[in-house]
């Protein structure tokens, strides 16, 4: 079960790296505008916030990836703590998104479901 949790956490981290790319580098690209439902003018006005948010997503991915490495190399307590911190923050951010704007339910599911499943799998593995 621990391996399944780490795989789910790794995929969640990769998704957050992709979100980082969209928010930090591709924010005003036509495809990104369509993904986030914005005009070019709105994207320009939000660029500093998006850059900040992008790096937030990258840092969550890094914490999760470092936790996976620690766990895989035998430091299970430290690794699991980092994996749970990273994926817990991802899942909590998705919850905040859907609570603050229910029309963003699909986006919240895309960014929050895998981290939630990773949390469940890792927790079960640690309890067994």
Automatic annotation (TrEMBL):
The residue ranges crossing the membrane are 6-28, 55-72, 78-99, 111-127
InterPro entries, alphabetically?
Answer: DUF1304
- Alphabetical UniProt keywords: Membrane, Transmembrane, Transmembrane helix
Q: Which domain of life is it from?
A: Bacteria
Decide whether keyword Membrane is in the record.
yes
The record's listing under Pfam families reads: DUF1304
Q: Does the keyword Membrane apply?
A: yes
PANTHER family noted in UniProt: BLL0914 PROTEIN (PTHR38446:SF1)
Any idea what this protein is called? DUF1304 domain-containing protein
Q: What organism is listed for this UniProt entry?
A: Promicromonospora alba
